Replication initiation protein (Actinocorallia aurantiaca), 364 residues
Amino acid sequence: MFVTLTAPSFGRVHTLGRDGTCRPRSSRPVCEHGMAAYCNARHSSDDKRLGNALCVECYDCTGHVLWHTAAPELWRRFTIELLRSFSRLSLERTGVHRTVRALREELRASYVKVAEWQRRGAVHFHAVVRLDGIDPDDPETVTAPPAWVDADLLAACVRDAASRVRVALPVPDGVERIARWGGQIDVRPITDPRRTAAYVAKYATKTASDVLPGLPVRRFDTFALDRMRKRGTSWHLLMLAGTCLRLADAEGCEDLRLAERVHTLGFPGHFATKSRRYSVTLGALRAVRRAWRAAQRTGDVWGQDGAVVVGDWRLVGVGHAKPGDALLAEQLAREEAVYREAVKYHDVVQVRVVDDGEAAGVAA
Ligand SMILES: [Zn+2]
Ligand SMILES: [Zn+2]
């Protein structure tokens, strides 16, 4: 099955709309902050307003960021709940009660999932969920699931499990929130494996900054907010990035490491994950890719100790190719100088530039 699980709504945002109109309302209602709670525009697909909140006050930025922090746990609980759903629904459909423990010896669910960034700055997940049987005499072989299981039942169980899971969120602002999946749970059988594979691969190589203009690729410091503003990042994303920084030390949020995850708006997961048994490991793929790249560059370059030998260095020039690059470099240097001064006098400011090996590896 190809499954899409989304984040719930955190407030009205500009969208392409089902019939092309964003959020049509002839009564032209306004929210309590005096902002239009409707939008009669027909946005083009490159309209900068798309994904932005209709009212930044109404939009639950805190709920959005906190949901991101819980998304991987929500997914984990979904994968556990799946067998419970099989237990429940198989009783309904076949009249036979099968316990989760018994099912674990009969069924093996595996998955590969990728995170996709929506324009409103929320991740949603696309996953291939696959069900196999287990041969008790040879658990390593791939075998068909038992006859009482079919694609319809798997689809029903995915929907059932996804609609049930919940994660309680911290309460930094006195509002109790429960993370759950959004109502748009899409489950469809895979009829064209090549197309599905291409789709999954496409999202496995995208980062938040590819989809959300102005969002930094890496972990960043408080000064990056200024840089984002100068680059014309939308208010919507700035609010969410600011919310990460604001919540970083808030009560109950201390362990969420939000200050390190501003570039993913609080989302701590990897862009692509899979269950251990799904296929070869990502580590093995990375090793093959590294070797292939190296071989492409210079023939067989791997020495006994695995070091890359670079054959030739050549000076191609000094300075900047375009005047704009020089200006940009100068501006960045000034910002860095200001930043270094700030660090010198306020050692409370911390920067950590950490290479996110897993995500970078997947993206490569
Ligand atoms: Zn609109
Ligand atoms: Zn409002």
Notes: Residues 2-213 form one domain. The radius of gyration is 24 Å. Residues 148 and 229 are 57 Å apart (CA to CA). Confidence is low (pLDDT under 50) at residues 300-309, 347-364.
